Amino acid sequence: MKVFNKPFTQQEAIPEEGISAALNVMRSGRLHRYNTLPDEKSETDLLEIEFAEYQGVPYCLACSSGGYALHVAMRAAGVQSGDKVLCNAFTLAPVPGSIHNSGAVPVFVDVADDYSIDLEDLESKAASSGAKFFMLSHMRGHLADMDRIMAICERYHLFLIEDCAHTMGASWNGKKSGTFGDIACFSAQTYKHVNSGEGGFLTTRHSDVMARAIMYSGSYMLYERHFAAPPKEAFEQIRFDTPNYSGRMDNLRAAILRPQIANLDAQCERWSCRYRVIEAILTRCADILLPERPAAEAFVGSSIQFSLPSFAAPQMLDVVKRCGERGVVLKWFGDAEPKDYTSRYDSWRYLEDMPKLPKTEQILASLLDMRIPLTFSEEDCALIAEIIVEVIGECE
Ligand SMILES: *Cc1c(COP(=O)(O)O)cnc(C)c1O
């Protein structure tokens, strides 16, 4: 019997270059982003400049986590207490959490058969809710048709915040994910595409938005020490009226991240090769539904999702259990009892007036997810996919 024996939560080591840069930061003792020598740019400053360049946007703020970036994005967008914010019903807990943290109210939009956001439901809820803000989560790296998304945003005058936690390095029709909306947020948490343990980015092309985001992030009156940022005039009107919600990036983590940003495209390519190996084997199994990915979508295969539409709940549990016994860790989004990372709208019970979304529930009921860490070789990936196909055959 085939078994696999590597951990699904093991990421690669930090590049040596990042380790030695981090040691230099520690030797200098200057870990705080504003603790610089005259004319020195800190590691955090350089990271922001480099990520802005990578994205092809003028402004970038590095901060303490992806969820923090989402919260500051809400605030910098001007969301007020009680405002409605459209967002995916299928996403990760920091998305509704950041909306709640700003006093706003999420309006959940269904997931579609291809695991991206359902555009018909989006359109209808944009019309019926009167929401002026839209937090679009490119959940598990699936990009919705961005041309249609932008058309809907224009029609309903929606301020668009992209949650790019799983699409750092991805693009739609050659345009980078995170450059469509008004603001984009990224995560540098261990299981995303760059790893500093915790960390996040907020990017935008709007100078007023970035000025507010920098103030919120805890810049005190040191905002002139930001370089991927608007000139000081942009801060003059707002600097006494914008609260400090301290959540800065530090130089140690920035040092670890800079070589990872420089190597991001090569890493994305390695992820996609692994994804293709797994996909090719899973496609051979008639029970497995793998939605075809649009030609316009250049995605990062850091995880894979597939459905078993003809399987009932006990069979889904059986598949997860048997795969687990053979070392293959799958997550089932249909589980009534949400485990580890929560991604279902109905597990966020602190929210009032929870809607019922039968379509989302139906899709999640047969949806499985698997991480693809880069510590797995392509041979590992082939073995994993073969085990999944065998187990599904046993559970038919
Ligand atoms: C990881 C993640 C975030 C941000 O998470 P942090 O852990 O706060 O960096 C946001 N959205 C999604 C979909 C995520 O997976």
UniProtKB/TrEMBL annotation:
It holds the Pfam family DegT_DnrJ_EryC1. Keywords: Aminotransferase, Pyridoxal phosphate, Transferase. Signal peptide: none annotated. GO terms for molecular function: transaminase activity. It comes from the Bacteria. Belongs to the DegT/DnrJ/EryC1 family. This is DegT/DnrJ/EryC1/StrS aminotransferase family protein. It comes from Marinomonas arenicola.
